[in-house]
Amino acid sequence: MVKIEVKGPIVSNDTVWVYHFLGWDACCPKDISEKLAEAAGDDVVLEINSPGGICSCGYEMYTALMAYGGKVTAHVITAASAASLLVCAADEALASDTCIFMIHNTRTEASGDYRKMQGCADLLKEYNEGIINAYVRKTGKPREELQEMMDKETYMSPKTAIEHGFIDGYIFGEPEGRDSGSAEAQGSTLLQAVNTEVPVIAEDRAKEIMAALALMRRNLPDTAGSTSGQQGKEEAQDAAICQKEQDNSIHADSEIKSTAGDAGEGEKKNMTLEEILAEHPEAGDEVKSLLEEAKKEGAEGERGRLQELDAISASVGASALNEAKYGENRMDAKELAYRSLVEDGKKAENYMKNAMKDSEDSGAGDVGAGCADEQPADESDDMASYVNARKGERKACS
């Protein structure tokens, strides 16, 4: 059995190495296809802990998993947005006790006149149709119902995802009736919450970083042992890096290293990015600037997350809010609000059960009800008679 991990954002083959260079989790279609090739028909466990990412890359992953000849079992920790497609591609989808599953409409950014904006809206609707195809195949639900769920940006607990047909069962078995402490311990062992500080770098931003690296390489001095053929290969390599739409077959290491196969005597081979920056710091200024800008965008996203959590602080507990902000299992306002709603629902259900039990124990059910036409006794005449009698007694005494 082969295990494939899908951790962090879903990004393109061309830009995934930028995330890895920054020390961030990310997954691309090539990660899936290469692992499936290694599995060679054996059973595969697909462990998913991803907030989603680029829709077209999710499409490619879904197609590769659907075409695989062996059995694919998805172990779902977090599967949101494009990552939900991978769950639907598995032969069997099992949820962690602490799983969260989310579906919503595709989205993008655009600018232009009304024709451009309308065209963008029409494009997104067509993308939605493809996603709904996968959801229909998995759940058997009507397209209209699925579109409504996507419109609402629907978050689902394991139980809800199972009820809707997206998930088939639990990794560790049905949690009801089991010792809660044991279930929490097993869940915490498997669950690694999505790191909300890792942003999905916009494709154009990632291309800028790659282009800066290519520019840095071109600024390196020629070596005595380089041949015209070698230089031609490097120029072609740099041109490929700078293209907006690159061939998916390009490997990350070929973008930051010299091709060693034809290196002449005395030429430095396979220099790492750190070595290049150490020898030519002036060429790395632009790269550092772009990286800093990407980190700044990630920090701004984190500040926005905290502000949104503060906005709902009045409706959630202080401990839950603090855990969502700074704890091991961080989450955004939407996820916290959803979990609080689920928890409040459980509390309300338990309250009603206890109230009904107290009512039964008190014997209130044995108390009869009055007739509908029965009127309360009018005591006004009796009171008047009593007052008049008292007046008569006083007159007699006087």
Task: Provide tags for this entry.
398 residues; alpha/beta; 2-enoyl-CoA Hydratase, Chain A, domain 1; 3 domains; 6-stranded mixed β-sheet; 16 helices; 6 strands
Q: Output the number of helix runs.
A: 16
Note poorly predicted spans.
179-197, 223-230, 242-269
| Amount of beta strand | 5-15%
Task: Give a count of the beta strands, DSSP E runs of length 2 or more.
Answer: 6
Q: Mind describing the biggest β-sheet? A: 6 strands, mixed
Secondary structure class reads: alpha/beta
What are the secondary-structure elements, in order, as H or E?
A: EHHEHEHEHHEHEHHHHHHHHH
| Topology-level CATH name of the largest domain | 2-enoyl-CoA Hydratase, Chain A, domain 1
Account of the 3D structure:
Strands 1, 2, 3, 4, 5 and 6 form a six-stranded mixed sheet that branches. The protein has helices spanning 16-21, 29-39, 55-67, 83-89, 114-139, 143-151, 158-164, 180-190, 203-218, 228-242, 252-256, 273-279, 285-311, 318-326, 333-362, 380-397; strands at 2-7, 44-50, 72-80, 92-103, 154-156, 169-170. It starts with a strand and ends with a helix. The longest helix has 30 residues, at 333-362. It is built from 16 helices and six strands. The chain is extended, with a radius of gyration of 33 Å. Helix 3 (55-67) links the parallel strand 2 (44-50) and strand 3 (72-80). It has three domains: 2-190, Alpha-Beta Complex (2-enoyl-CoA Hydratase, Chain A, domain 1); 203-294, no CATH class; 312-349, no CATH class. The protein has 398 residues and is of the alpha/beta class.
